[in-house]
Amino acid sequence: MDDDYTSIEDYFSNEVYLTHSSDYEELLGNNSRPELSPRDPTELVLMYAFNAVIVATGIVLNLVLVKGIIGAKSNGALLFVLQIALIDVLTLLTSNWELYYYIRRTWIFSKLHCTLYSGLESFTSMAVVYLIIGLNFHSISSYNLAVELSKNALATPDAESATESLTEENNYEVATDSISQKRSLTIDYRYKKRRISVRLPILLVWFIAASESLPLFLFADIETANPADSAEQPIKRYCTELTNTVANHNIVSLMVIAIRIILPSVALVITLAQTVIKFYRGKHFTQPDEIEENVAFSLKLSIFLSISYVVFTLQRLYGSLLQEIILQPKIVPKYPGFNPIVGISLAVLHYTASFIRPLVLIIMCKQKSNNVDITFTCQKRAENNSISLQ
């Protein structure tokens, strides 16, 4: 103890009157939220326009697409489209967090919002790219199955014998108390080759995305940083992802780069090239009747969704995510290598994909040449006042 006290009264009086108020001010200043400047009118206009045009309209379009696919009880490739539409809704719901984060250059929301934003951002980015890759593999497999069935049909000289070889009728006796009835059981062995299941790949994608984003839901936090260049600048608050934890280890960082950036990029490019080749080769033969799914339309969906991801979202993996991982443990905002105007433009470009995708997919489903029986709007019947999808 630096000071000598002759009594307890001297000790308490000295502690009370010699306390420096600057110590409390410094403590309060470090824990306080950053001072926010008044909102720029331009910022308000941009945010309102973004929410009205991209977010609100995009959510409505995705929900319309989801309703149409569920109402048509579609399967196959359209089940992948259904999952992507749901992911796009989540993506648009998290967009405001990021745009405010980037415009203000500091996190202005609570810790709970930081946790939700970090986890959902990771989950949606992982799920959408792997769902598109899964759709590409499904379209390629459907094409290969159609080619195989087409070759088998050409190799069979007699169509009736081919039908008999695939479909077999077995007669059996059913004994009852008083009579014996003869019934016919038809076994269609072609059913096993008509479709390719998509439930397991979809569940696998959801599992991968949830596993990758779970640590962020648990450990994402807000870090406060004092500006080093000027003491007059307000305190910066960053919504960080596992800062100063085991996630900063080099091995973990390399695993994240491999799973979230390298692997999906390579798989997407390879499967996109394959779907384009299969689509142009498919023009030379007629799809067999045994295939229930429209293979040509499935390939079209794969090509469009893959190209849309490359155009709108691939820049985010290398321009933002990769830079954030490389610069760890230093705390940086999104798009650290770009100036604010370019950075926010790239962020808006990324979220625009969730608005463009459902719009184009609805148009593709409505085209008669694609032969897709999906209805998106409701129309009242005058006869019995019931509602039917049109």
Automatic annotation (TrEMBL):
Membrane topology: Multi-pass membrane protein
InterPro entries: GPCR_Rhodpsn_7TM
UniProt keywords, alphabetically: G-protein coupled receptor, Membrane, Receptor, Transducer, Transmembrane, Transmembrane helix
SUPFAM superfamilies hit by this protein: Family A G protein-coupled receptor-like
Transmembrane segments: 45-65, 77-95, 115-133, 200-220, 251-277, 297-318, 338-360
Predominant location: membrane
Residues in G-protein coupled receptors family 1 profile domain copies: 56-361
Compartments where located: Membrane
Cellular component, GO, one term: plasma membrane
MF terms (GO), sorted A to Z: G protein-coupled receptor activity
UniProt protein name: G-protein coupled receptors family 1 profile domain-containing protein
